[in-house]
Amino acid sequence: MQNQTPIACQLYDYIEIACMYNLHVMVTLKNDAVSLSWLSSEDKHGEKKPVKGPHTEKANAIDITGFAKTTKMLTTDMGKIECVALLPLSHMAQSDAQTSGISADKEQKEMVMIALTDIVSLTAITKNPHFSVVHF
Questions:
Q1: Alpha-carbon dihedral 10, 72, 23, 50, rounded to 10 degrees
Q2: This prediction's pTM
Q3: The pLDDT of residue 46
């Protein structure tokens, strides 16, 4: 099992800032992103369909939006992969609407995990003094 090459430290700092401040972000992935293997499933026609998170596809990239929550190391058959966990906007809006919020277990299940090395750019939708767009 081979481990993933880490991203540059200064880029990792932006991921940490987004998570620390729970920023609403748009992550642009490479079109051949490793993350797509677990973000997609086959539909009844055998075509790959995204299963989680609001997204848009471009000719050479895919955008996924959500609230940055944490980073996590996943162990897969491809090795250890460091990821950022996003909570899709639809789930965040539901928790804000409920006074009790959603449970930590349910929130964990709804997270979209994105390999850090799949990221092309990170765009802050939430205005903040730290960054607006970071290119990886």
A1: 110
A2: 0.73
A3: 42
